[in-house]
Write a structure and sequence with these properties.
Layout (H helix, E strand, L loop, with lengths): L7 H17 L3 H18 L12 E3 L8 E3 L7
Antiparallel strand pairs: 1-2
Helix pairs in contact: 1-2
């Protein structure tokens, strides 16, 4: 599995979304983070799994949430 690095703005957005869901329903923010983590693990293990997006990126979607993780598969030797 490839190491994962998050853009600082993505980390801020993830925290804000988790707070948003937690405010709506206790435990929902935690569930959101777990689903995002699962989607990130999937993309890391299978970099070509997400459909092509823009600027050489791909996307994966956490289950049950209107959210996507945009990622750039690392190139060989990167």
């Amino acid at each position: 599995m490839k190491p994962v690095r998050f853009h600082p703005a993505a980390e801020v957005e993830l925290a804000a979304e988790a707070r948003y869901y937690e405010e709506r329903s206790p435990g929902l923010g935690e569930r959101f983070v777990r689903e995002v983590e699962a989607a990130v693990r999937l993309a890391s293990a299978f970099p070509q799994i997400g459909p092509p997006y823009r600027y050489d990126t791909r996307r994966v979607f956490p289950k049950s949430f209107a959210f996507s993780i945009v990622y750039r598969p690392s190139r060989a030797g990167s």
